[in-house]
Design goal:
Udp-n-acetylmuramoylalanyl-d-glutamate--2,6- Diaminopimelate Ligase, Chain: A, domain 1, alpha/beta, 6-stranded parallel sheet, Protein-Tyrosine Phosphatase, Chain A, 6-stranded mixed sheet, UDP-N-acetylmuramoyl-L-alanine:D-glutamate ligase, 22 strands
Amino acid sequence: MTLWTSEDAAAATGGRVTRDFAVDGVSIDTRTIRPGDLFVALQAARDGHDFVARALEQGAGAALVSRIPEGVASDAPLLVVPEVLPALEALGRAGRARMRGKMIAITGSVGKTSTKEMARIALTGQGVIHAAEASYNNHWGVPLTLARMPQDSDFAIVEIGMNHPGEIEPLARLARPHVAMITTVAAAHLEAFGAIEGIAREKGAIFRGLTQPGTAILPEDLPVTQLLRDCADAAGGIVIGFGQHGMASPVTARTDGDTTQVRARILGDTVDFTLASVGAHFVMNAVGVLAALSAAGADVKQAAAALSQWRPPAGRGAVEDLDGIRLIDDAYNSNPTSLAAGLATLARLTGGRRVAILGDMLELGPDEAAMHRAMADDPAMASVDLVHLAGPRMRALYEALPGTRRGLYSETAAALAERVDELVAAGDIVLVKGSKGSKISMVVDALRRTRQSGAPGERTA
């Protein structure tokens, strides 16, 4: 099915086409490009123009460029524009304008990608569904998601992230969601904002992109909830809170092995669903998702039933059986809120010694040492038998832990990974968590190398 004709793409971007073309996808990476894609020559760590010839050789239907690259014929199928990134934004804006379905946007300090995936899977069977790939949530990820969106999409889900002030609003205005959801507000990227209130205001900026009338889905049980409500009210959004005291709330949540059986009230409807996780934060995000889908006009009971097919994305809390141990791979990101959630998940799992392997939490600002140290007093930490730590910031937590709970400490994740045989024993339940930049995923890789992974069907969450 044709996604963009040369005529439509040129009209959207104001560019010049060298010859007529039709493409059925959009790509920025020659490693994953498919025949018939439009290759977008973005300039990032490397200049995408250096890969145009390869993209065309691999079957790209055309390329979006700001110049004719060396080694590419002048009559190759090209869309030539003054600058590539603004042209991709324009293509995304045009893709959004022609879509007549419902747009849902998701942001939050924790859980954006897993929540986006929840929404995508929950919508199974309810029409043509389009969702952001992976964690494509930044200045090029959002327009790329919109540019890839089929015109006949019934529902679309975009993920919007940020590292610095002022990033969310323009992306939200580009997406123009009918429903915008904030998963939570936590001390992530705190060094760029100074205080949690600054993060809340930036997250609340997603509501400025709402279509009118639009719906704001926000967490009810935070210290900054009122600030988020103020942001939604200022944007003219219809506010729906989710949480223990929200219009969408869990009534009961009962763990059963590696799953959680949930009954929830969603805007007046009672629904039952099963999650392949014991994480309470996943339960709450699922409740928020169902509120968002209900507000977007989806069948909420059908959506709840489909949630049983959801699994946490890799590195974000998935549980798997390795030879002799159970591994909770949560090594993609970390901050005090998400670490507390990870420890709570570890505490809920039973059957063996509980071991936490933790890397530094990054971008927390001047109080980072105190924030690391304070994790020793987290309620769930009392249920952890042994804590191994890596990174200079985690030294503060190591010194705060009682000696009976202290495991190994290394300055780097690489050094800790070299001692993988000393970290765990048969029967252990193991949480590995840290900010991506801490490279604590090296320990996950080492565990997988040294222990035979169970068959794909044995993955438990």
